[in-house]
Amino acid sequence: MKIRLLLSLAGLALGFALPIVAQQTNMPAPAATKEINLSGIHYWSGTPKVFQIDPDRSILEMEIFGVRVNDSGDGPFNGASVYIAVLHYQNKGPVDPVRSRNYEVWTDKDGDKVIWELTDDSSGGPSGTARLIDGTGKYTGWQGTMQYTLQFPKPFPEGTGRGICREVVKIVAPAEVK
User: Fold this and answer.
1) Parallel, antiparallel, or unpaired: how do β-strands 127-135 and 81-91 relate?
2) CATH code of 143's domain
3) Structural domain harbouring 44
4) Which of helix, strand or coil describes residue 160?
5) What is the pTM of this model?
6) What is the average pLDDT score of the chain?
């Protein structure tokens, strides 16, 4: 009788354990990824709109349009259109003197896009970082980071803004990317 009880308990335990083992052994392997490193420049222009809150505070809004070129002259995003939505708050006071919320979209020749979130640079300096937050088409599932520096040549015509942005980009993409 003890043997029957032991065999019943063993069978019950095995009945619960087998589906768990089967689930664990049938789990898909982590997807293979490929690292893409590139650097380049994009040239842009835009017309800012400034809302003066008072003598010490203002909000600037600007749409920036441009084109980017990889240093290698080819590869992903060489010749891509660039669009940046800029929202910038400036306070000459001691608390949070500059805050920016900027999103950058690169559109390739096929219409596929990557979307970057540019980080807040509290110093207001001409450099910063960004992270790739989304992609469409062949760029779905891509992740990445970017470091950039800016130069501001004299604008023409008056009241416009122009810039040259040097970028160093690191992307992690699914391995099937060529």
Assistant:
1) unpaired
2) 2.40.160
3) 33-174
4) coil
5) 0.77
6) 83
Diameter of the chain measured on Cα atoms: 98
The span from the first CA to the last CA of the chain, in angstroms, equals: 66
Looking at the 3D structure of the chain, how many domains does it have?
A: 1
3 in any annotated domain: no
Q: Which amino acid is at 12?
A: L
Amino acid letter, 50: V
**Domain annotation covers residue 108:** yes
Q: Is 18 among the domain residues?
A: no
Q: Which of 43, 44, 39 is nearest to 72 (CA)?
A: 39
Question: Domain for residue 17, yes or no?
Answer: no
pLDDT, one tens digit per residue, over 11-30 is 444 454 444 444 454 555 56
Q: Please report where in the chains the tokens 């800029």 appear, as a residue.
A: 86
| Rounded (10°) CA dihedral 171, 173, 177, 178 | 20
